[in-house]
Design goal:
heterodimer; A: mainly alpha; B: 261 residues; mainly alpha; globular
Amino acid sequence: MAYRAATVSAAAGLSSAGVESRATRILLRLATWFVLAFLYLPLVIVMVYAFNESRSQNWPPSGFTTHWFGVTFGNEEFRAALWLSVKAALGATTVALLLGSAAAFAVHRFRFFGRNVVSFVLVLPIALPGILTGIALNSAINFSGIPFSLLTIIVGHATFCVVVVYNNVIARLRRSWGSIVEASMDLGADGWQTFRHVTLPNIATALVAGGLLAFALSFDEIIVTKFTAGAQETLPIFILNNIHRPRNRPLVNVVALVVIVASLIPVSLAQRLTQDRTSREVAARPSALEPAP
Amino acid sequence: MLVVYLAALVLLFVTSFWRLNPLTQFIERTFTLQNYHQLLTESSFRTVAIRTVGMAAAVTLTDIALAFPVAYYAARIATPRVRNALLVAVVLPLWTSYLVRVFAWKTILEGGGPAQWLLQHIGLGGIRLTFSNWAIWIAFTYLWLPFVILPIYAALERIPPSYLEASGDLGARAGRTFRQVVWPLALPGVVAGSIFAFSLTLGDYITPELVGNTKFIGNIVSDKVGVIGDLPFAAAYCMVPVAIMAVYLFMARRLGAFEAL
């Protein structure tokens, strides 16, 4: 009886026990723990440094204090950079939501000339090296004579934020679409009513999730921003400029902690909103680069 | 938006055939292959290109070696709950700021920092990682690791457990099952992951600047644009990673990597 039960469950693919030896399993588990430690230890160490008492970066820290948080938040340059980054991220997210969902609808619902080209071009800012996107936009801005401004930062960020929203929305459309719109129309709803009561509730969480991810991406971006910001200072540029000033190192440590926490909040929210599909959708994150890198 | 972006790329490509007049500092809009000639013949640019490709290859191989056990553990050994938690844990660092993650390694590897402290305590105090190619290698490996784990996991997850059992039943030992069943089926995922690690390393210029002291393709490009204003040469040099990636993607496609993305 027990033998039969075992073969049945193995045949159903429920049990794969026994293929890997015990030693292999233990080794794999150790390797996994090692990699997780490798992934998280650096973040923990940076967060510890934010509470470092001295300006010296020597390990271990001589003592702990929250003094530098006050200094950082009182710093005019930091506040201006933070505010610029928030404005840029809000702008890029808005553009990404509009264009990304429009592109997703178009590609999903209609067969048109150049349809494959659109989905290909959308992925380009992620696939190409971030520096290429950066200098391409930089030369285009110089060429057109538009001065560097918040607008040029937003345009630069939107190039790679659009695809995040696009990916989220099109994944949702493919999953939950089917005949639901036709059903709504058959039941007498007009186009606007269908959009308002059927389409929008269906894609709402995908939009919010895509928007949050786009915000997080834009907020952190450095590789493209360096070429589209001119003399303006976003928060990542503030970090980069101050890394080389030993006096300001404690500030950079605090900002690093703030940025880690600030980017994990929208991402964990996005994760909740998409629940079981998250790992895939969140995994659709482009490089820093994006792509960037 | 798309049009602006595409136009910018095309414009950049065209620019790579112009030249900066070294005397007037103006960009002359006449067709010339001078930039390409220069980057192919001048040994310093070749050295940088070779160094960049070598680093990208080293980082890619290290990432695969680190990613494979984790992906295998998640796909075949972990319980569903542990698997989900593990995948989220792998992806989450990608969402923290790229710059902060590079900065974290700068902090760790700096003189007097945690790495030196640790090395001294285990009796390896003679090793200097600060501002070295080793530092760049570690930082790149760290940055792109999640990108490599995910596609390998996706490929491994798709292997039906019955294949492994069949292989065992037919008398193959674990090593042979791995070589002849698991590895060929995982290969598209491995190649897909390698695309990320390789291309992201080729295009990066911040990491070498912060944790290392050698120049990579990205640094030359960034210096040419930012410091000298020689956009035509920068554009031409940018085409090196693009060409390398085009070849790489072509080969990856033949290995079936795109289906695994």
